[in-house]
Fold these 4 entries.
Entry 1:
Amino acid sequence: MRITAPAGSPSHVQALDARRERQYVFEYYEIVHFVIEETTMKEIQLLELLGDIYRRVFRAVAPLAQSEGLSMTELLVVWKMHSRECRRVKELVAEIGLPPSTLTGILDRLTAAGWLAREDDREDRRAVVMRRTEKLDKFIRLLRQERTKSLEAAFRKLPRDLVERLTEDLTAVHDILEAEEKQE
């Protein structure tokens, strides 16, 4: 006989979080796999390198997130929220790519823990706006320090002109992708 935690208990919520994260990772890799099938070998290599760098940077800050009780998915939402004072939930759904119901659960947990504040949108009373809190701002400062440490060590080993060229080239790719996204 298998014993399961009652719905709503902390261990039940953690199990749901773990399942959601596995589903999110699975969907991410499905998308990456589709993109890879549609690209050339050099583009595949670039995608794999960028994905690996992204994972390594996040892995470096994972202990800090875990010490605060944040899952990696919650960390992603916190990171997206830090760049602007407030965001509509609809914008976050589009940026992060999680289903609205999943993101709503994450936002509820982050609000209950004091990372975010939920407010009515002044411009559209039907919409909800998530506002970052001082707790989130302090955490982002710590997170940036940790991220900077891990990246500085790597970039110090590269010639300055290479770092500048990488920045320019990746900015160009980013701008092209952003322009295409706006056209959709």
Entry 2:
Amino acid sequence: MIRPRHTLEPYSQREKDFQTQPLPSNELVKMLFDTALESLLILPVLVERQDQVNKVREINRVMCIIYDLREMIDFERGGEFALSLSKLYSGMNQNLLEASKAKSKNQLANIQHVANILQQIKNTWDKAPDISVKNQWLH
């Protein structure tokens, strides 16, 4: 059965509205953490299977997310904490870059190291007492 186009219009408008409404910064950060951690869980399987193409794709995804998290830091309000977090993110991306190499002997160790650090950062973020504290770390 083919439905008339006008019966689907309310649904397509709702989808458009959803796509154009920006997430609050704190929700965006949570989503970025969750997505990166999901990719980091998949990576050891891809390494074991020697699936270089998908491994690099997932590593690139995580590196982009970490880059985005770093870009969201407000260095003026965050002070020394912001600088330390930025350096931590940069180090994580260096570990992932090393893990992306096909001949790297420490692929799994580097991936696990990044996963552990990112999980700790996420846990700290989740424990922040309220949104105003979280937003002071972000642009």
Entry 3:
Amino acid sequence: MSMKKDKTEGDIMVMGENKYKTLVRSGEWNAPSREQQEILALTAKLETMTKKKKGKGNEKTNKKYEWKKVAPKDLQDNKHKNGKKYHWCIKHQMWTLHKPEDCKLEGKEAPKDNNLKLTAALEVIEGDEDSVE
């Protein structure tokens, strides 16, 4: 008689439970395989490299092009930089290579001159005061 035939269902269940508990304690139960561990490590490394690259690139780019966001005193002025002629685009609110009248930016209107609105409002108010007196 072999030992396998001598074991009852209860004995097999106890052995299975003991094996399970041993694997859980050692951290081997549901542990990723070698291939899975390698994939996890490579994924983490790729994410780290991507984050580092994004952070450095944006910082350098932002400093390099900060001048493009500084509005001129006269909106008709042009700027020459690196052998290129830049124009102030009122829709983009920055220096661009295209002329303001050639801008193709959709959905944005050129900012309206608030001083004109204020002047018009003051004229209306002053006109109303004259009619009251």
Entry 4:
Amino acid sequence: MQTGRGPPVCPSTKCRRGSYCIEGSVITVKQNRKSRLTIAGFFIVLAGLLYSCGGGGGGYGGGGGTPPTSTVQVVACPVGGTTDVSIISSTAAGFSPGSVTVPVNTTVKWTNAGGMQHTVTSTTVPVNGTFNQTVNPGVSVCLKFTSAGTFNYQCSLHPVMTGLVTVQ
């Protein structure tokens, strides 16, 4: 091994420029700008992800506390006092009526009067108002709407079937 100014140089012909000879082993040290930038970029992205996760308290959403109550709740279908929607086919007119307007705290009941399985699935809803219920033939599902808003929905199995619940 030669010594002098700079790092030790390996006398082996296997060594290349930028390599060091340590006890007969060749260790390649690549010191290029691209690899340093890649490593620095990785740590910057990692720091950004950690920062965006938030801190303080854990719990719901990283901010502590409990999750907000949904504005649409699945409930057992009552004997009466519901706004009824029939599911009659797999066409655009599959929900009848296609649009209902109800007061807050109203239960809407979907009854599948056809012979195929359908769903009642939210598409655009206010925060905490998502829903996705399967409705088998001859079965009903009920959802209680506890706050005002516009709730668009569809059958996820037959997306041409759409409906709207407006809660005032």
